[in-house]
Amino acid sequence: MPASIGPSHQTVHPSRLSSASVWEQSDGFQVLWPASTRTHQLVAEGCDSPSGIDAVVLPLDGAFETRLDAARQFWRALSGRPLAPAHGALPQQAKIRHILNLRAHDGRRTGATFRQLAETLLSREPIAPRDWRDHHLRHKVRAILRRTERMVAGGYRDLLFYPHSRGRKSDR
Fold first, then answer.
1. Are 127 and 118 in contact (CB under 8 A)?
2. How far is it, in rounded angstroms, from Cα 167 to Cα 132?
3. Which of 28, 35, 71, 125 is the most exposed place for a label (fewest CB within 10 A)?
């Protein structure tokens, strides 16, 4: 690849990275570099010695965006730039929704009624028993508990692969 690299490229010498661990493998070498914010792992295939890395090759597969983000974070650490938001980080609204789901699940497992869950998790004031039958929070609590049952039944695994599992039903 050196012929296609322009004059502004930077060669990374793993031996010059502070606190980097370098070890040889059968088809190349591996580098583990604990930068200030996170640990970066590089795998160089087809190289005889860890003298320098001129380019990063990323396969065009389902995890391309995640790999691209890891390469970007590595580049930022090399350049001494601050950490950027990670690709595919779970949005704050989704985190809040999952916390609510788990709280509802825990409440239901301890014997709380749907009305008690609605009052505790969703309402600022008590719900009168006569209003509960047609209350909008009754339907919301039921929907939350249906979502929670799917998560507990194995849907939580989708969170491990977020955002790659969006739009795909989890294996049940």
1. yes
2. 34
3. 125
pLDDT at 170: 46
For the chain, the straight-line distance linking the first and the last C-alpha, in angstroms and rounded, comes to 45
Tokens of 52: 């320098």
Asked, as a colleague might, if the bond just before 82 is cis with ω within 30 of 0, I would say no
Return d(Cα 8, Cα 52) in angstroms, integer.
15
CA dist 172 and 159 (Å) reads 14
The two tokens of residue 9 are 């490229």
> pTM for this one?
0.54
What pLDDT, in 10s, does the model give residues 45-99? 766 656 666 677 788 888 888 888 888 888 888 777 877 777 777 888 989 999 9
Residues 6+ apart with CB under 8 A from 151: 98, 101, 105
Count Cα atoms within 13 angstroms, Cβ side, for 44. 20
Domain ranges of the chain: 2-78, 92-160
Q: For residue 29, which phi and psi values (nearest 5 degrees)?
A: -150, 165
Q: Which two tokens stand for residue 102?
A: 């788990």
